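Dear Dr. V.,

Thank you for agreeing to look over these. As mentioned in my earlier message, I'm a first-year student in the group and I'm still getting used to reading structure tokens, so any feedback on how I've presented them would be very welcome. I ran two proteins. I've put each sequence directly above its structure. The first is here:
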Amino acid sequence: MDNLAGLMILLFLAITFLQSGYDKFTDFQGNVSWLKEHFAGTFFDGKVELALKTVMVFELIAGLLSIVGMIEMSISGGTTFGKYGAVVSCVTLLMLLFGQRLAKDYDGARTIAIYFITAVLGVYLLQ
């Protein structure tokens, strides 16, 4: 329990990305349908399914690494997997930010920035 803030950030990232990845997996066609409209006329027009699968995989990896990181911290005090989880979370959020900016969804991009600050703080605390 030496790094309680790190544990809380990893729990936040695990909840965020596992829930989001699970939602994308269980309602893939619903997400594709909404995103095709969202990205119509952009670079992702016609590439929505591949982009969604890519983001879903990154989200699930980020969430799983965050959980493994919490376990590692609790057992040995190590931060390797937690740091990887936070870094993959940052990369995932940058992909999402790119998509939101491309779609000119500036409110969505602003929301992602809040999550990104938390993930970067996790990278910093878990060094």
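The second protein is here, in the same arrangement:
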Amino acid sequence: MRYINIKEEIVSLPLNDNDNDNCLFHIEMAGISYCDGTYKIKRTNSSVYVFEFILSGQGTVVYNSEIFHPAAGDIYILHRGSNHVYYSDREDPWVKIWFNARGRLIKHLIEAYELGSVNHIEGLNLELLFNEMYRVIQSKKGGSEELLSRAAVLFHEIIQQIHLWVNQNKAVKSSEAFKIKHFLDLHLEDDISLQDLGRQIFRSPAQVIRLFKREFGKTPYEYLLEKRIQTAKLLLKNTNLMVKEIAFKLNFTDEHYFSNRFKAKTGMSPKKFRQMK
């Protein structure tokens, strides 16, 4: 069945009910959507995998407890079994090309390429592959088995490309996080803002926090505070600097704040630590 209306071009290849959970690979539906401000799709315990490439515009996806905002040039994957809702921006609505799929091969490839936790892929232009997938499903040439065989090859290539892109980005983001860490290590005694960190890697403050926490399990502020407390321990143990001098040297706002942070981290005041050591 194929139908076209003003908002969407859709090709549907329904399976028999008995085959839904046992098939190896099947593209259930594919299409091109010309969204408006009212466009919204919601699924609970989705029975299909959803793959969408954004040609233009922007919108929002709520996937289980995560929220992201795919825009032109992005891909998003909504895995089978997930709860999700996605909707187009009212002022700049999506135009997107997509397909819904099911089958054991999809589950196997997603696991093999470690994409089970991947949902939003930014800036990976697979427009040609998505268009070819839609063209193949649309043509229905050669019978369903030949058609799905060709679609499976295209699907595998899409998964491979996503895997390569995600891993390349992980390496870049890891490098950026270590660059931030190195900058913090060199500026323990300086007044550092998130804007300062962002300028090191040309990222926004929110992106700096996200990248750093993904790599090190803590925010840049938490890391900087830990390093300053470690340095304070060395200064208390090995110098005659007064507590207020150490607080000033390590850029704490005042002696009282420094003492409170030190005690929260070590269980004792700076004076008590110096006496014990």
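From my reading of the second output: The radius of gyration is 26 Å. The chain has two domains: 2-169, 187-277. Does that match how you would interpret it?

Kind regards,
E.
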